[in-house]
Structures are given as C-alpha cells and as structure tokens.
Write a structure and sequence with these properties.
mainly alpha, two-stranded antiparallel sheet, about 100 residues, binds zinc ion
Length: about 100
C-alpha cells in the first residue's frame, strides 16, 4: 500500500495525516519523546527554533508505514521525535544534523 516513495509522499501530504500530525505534536507537548525519555529536555530545540516551532520535530510511525499501513493514523503508533532522534532511529545520517552535536552526551 505504501511500498513506494511516491505513495508515502502522497500520504504525508494528505490532509488526514496533516491533521493527525498536529494532533500528535500537541499531545506530546511539542517535545521529542525520545530525548525526554533520556532526560534531555528539548531546551536545545528552542534555541534553533526561532519561531518555527515545528520545524525540528517529526511525527514518527513506531511501526513503519510500509509494514503496518493499517496503523498509519493510529495514535498509539505515532510519536513525536526530533529530527536527530528520527534519523538515528532509521539509521540515517545527515551532515545537516551535525549542528546539533554541540552538547556532550
Ligand atoms: Zn530527540
Ligand atoms: Zn520514522
């Protein structure tokens, strides 16, 4: 159902997802839940935000969209992550993310 990138992009652009995404961000208090779990509150986010509060946060599918399309809009399968945690989860590494690494882990 969401096997191709094209289909996934269409999903992420769809109004139901956009609405759901906002809902989840709000539910999670606009905080990265992974950072929160590690006791790293998202103070850093604010520093980079400069008015665009949502820019560094993604809503992630805990069970991947392509694996569990039936959970695409299910609250319990959705979690707010910062871009850094999100990339880590998916094993992606982007140069861009480097700028976040100014604090010691
Ligand atoms: Zn995070
Ligand atoms: Zn994800």
């Amino acid at each position: 159902m969401y096997d191709t990138v094209k289909e996934r992009i269409r999903f992420y652009k769809s109004p139901p997802w956009r609405r759901k995404r906002e809902e989840i961000l709000k539910r999670d208090n606009y905080e990265c839940q992974e950072c929160k779990k590690q006791g790293k509150v998202t103070v850093d986010l604010n520093r980079f935000n400069q008015g665009t509060k949502h820019k560094y946060l993604d809503v992630d599918h805990i069970e991947e969209l392509q694996d569990r399309p039936n959970l695409a809009l299910t609250d319990s399968n959705l979690i707010t992550l910062c871009i850094k945690c999100h990339n880590l989860k998916h094993g992606r590494y982007q140069k861009k993310v480097k700028q976040w690494d100014d604090e010691r882990w």
